[in-house]
Amino acid sequence: LSKFVSIIGGIVEHGLISRIAKTDFDERSILPYVNVGDGSVGDIDASTSCCRFIDGVITNTRKMHQVLVALLPSEDLMDVFSRIFSYLDSKIPKILIEADADEKVQFQFPVSIEGKRRVVMEVNIMTVTMNNLS
After folding, report:
1. pLDDT, tens digit (0-9, with 9 covering 90-100), for 18-41
2. What are the backbone dihedrals phi and psi of residue 10, each rounded to the nearest 5 degrees, phi first?
């Protein structure tokens, strides 16, 4: 089961990490802001776009879930996705921190309040979307 975590890890660390470059949350803050509320499905506006990195994490995790839901017993599925979520929960902040510190990567954490809200909103959308996988 840990093989599936490694697959998502490889996708995030090698396939999606380049999408962080040129992500500007201060600039993205002018895009529509959505309050995801208490986490119920209806609270997320489907038209809200996350940055390419977060969108890639959501898309690839959703695809993995669609495949595994048909193949694994529910207990194994819960175990796999518990591990995947734990991995993402620790790895995504590290990736963003490393990108901010790397002079070669054109990424900086936002400085404006609106940009900081945008990061929080997009991460919240990712979290709620993944928690609603069924």
Report:
1. 999 989 999 999 887 665 555 444
2. -65, -40
